Amino acid sequence: MMTRTVDTSQELAAFLRTRRERLDPHDFGLPSRRQARRTPGLRREEVAELAGVSIDYIVRLEQGRGLRPSADVVEALAGALRLAPDERAYLFDLARQRPRTADKLATTATAPLARLVADLSPLPAMLMNHRYDILAWNGEMARLLLDFDTLPPPQRNSMWLCLMHPGTREFYVDRERVVRESVAHLRAAWAAHPEDQALTDLIAEFTAGDEEFAHWWAERDVKVKGRGRKVLRHPDVGTIAVDFETLTPLQDTDQLLVIYRAANEESQSALDRLRPR
User: Which residue ranges does the record assign to the HTH cro/C1-type domain (predicted)?
Assistant: First the structure.
């Protein structure tokens, strides 16, 4: 069970190992004599050669010996391991090499953003922080998802609702994809906010209480999902497909503005039926 904040050395070690083991040697045009392999992925010496560092350095990194690679080395490792942009950002966060602004964790909505959420009606909208805590919402979002006012503040968390709330566990038609993408997003937030004990405690609760979350967390996938589509099972109006967009305000970069739009005419009709008469 997770009781501490991020141990960056150990997480960096584990992340490098999992990314290395996922690579296909054939994609690198390695000589055939190197193809008889006892372990998956590339060997450490191959990653070392691709990144231009010593094998011993890779070994020490993967053993979590507390090394802090420079920004140049992190960039070289990201290239050698063919990391996706979100994975690359995660690696920079773990190595403490990404420029950071002062950490002021948002636990309440700023007044201008709270007004904006209300003004976005009739589009369903809500404001969250990096933990997925729901800080503000408009009436359309409450009628679509849940009346958040009926929940105690600790439960006003979109990940907690998806995993733990009995009324919303089966709310998403493609639940596995939604959970997997949310876990990958949460892992990126975890690395970017290593001193956030509340976030670490939340992840520990999810890991202990939900096998699905624990499985995807162990995969160490990293993906910041800024837009996409979700299909919802609404108890009153049936199936609704929504496209979502996630925006980050420049002056409140720890807050996320999420806006839903109907994905088709049938879904728009369903949303219209949710409006008060």
Answer: 34-88
